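## retry 2 of 3
previous attempt timed out at serialization; input unchanged, resubmitting
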Amino acid sequence: MDWIAVLSGLGVGIIVGITGVGGGSLMTPLLLSVFKLSPAVAIGTDLWFAALTKVSGSVAHARHGHVKWKLTGLLLAGSIPASIATVAVMHMTEITKGWASTLTFSLGIALLLTAVVVAFKKSWQLVGLRLERYIPESRKPALTVACGVILGVLVSLSSIGAGAIGATLILLLYPRLEARYIVGSDIAHAVPLTLVAGIGHATLGNVNWALLVPLLLGSMPGIWLGAQLTRRLPDNVVRGLLCGSLVLAGWKVIH
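## retry succeeded, writing output
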């Protein structure tokens, strides 16, 4: 058993439990810096980590009726084909230095976008309410599918985006939707998307299965522990530390 991997999974799980931010934002930089995986293998391994750790949350939200299935279906209508197309392009083009650079750059941008999303978490609803006057209800389904396409490409290239960025896009389009439905629908969308993207990366040989198992073993108690701690830590402190970590990781990855 790789105890460094178990402890890494535990640490990421705790942070996910406290902040609610998807583990991909934290796990992929960890796989690159601590375990020295190539960008492609780090992204593929993290996609499976994200898919499997989100399953229980998705089931729980569905049982409580917190999933807007029409919204989730529209997102999947865009994200699944986009993910398959992105992986297909990767299959058709050899993983060269150029592809590695593209994956690394996509990862860095996704980390920085997540930092911005987390930093201005409370402002996105106000932005969405202002956008409402310009977005009629009849256009929202098409825009939701378009958001799914963006998420499908971003997640397949970086393993990041299905969590915080996905929830923010939903909030911008549906600012009057209650938080529980945004979170539930976002997680219900994230599971199949990350699983499809993960399968695609697995067909490319981009998954370190031996490392994935101890990471998952560590993350399970970590998420539970983080959920208990979240009541005792000030939200501003947690968000500030997380944003700083994401910006630092994103800047380091790009450079």
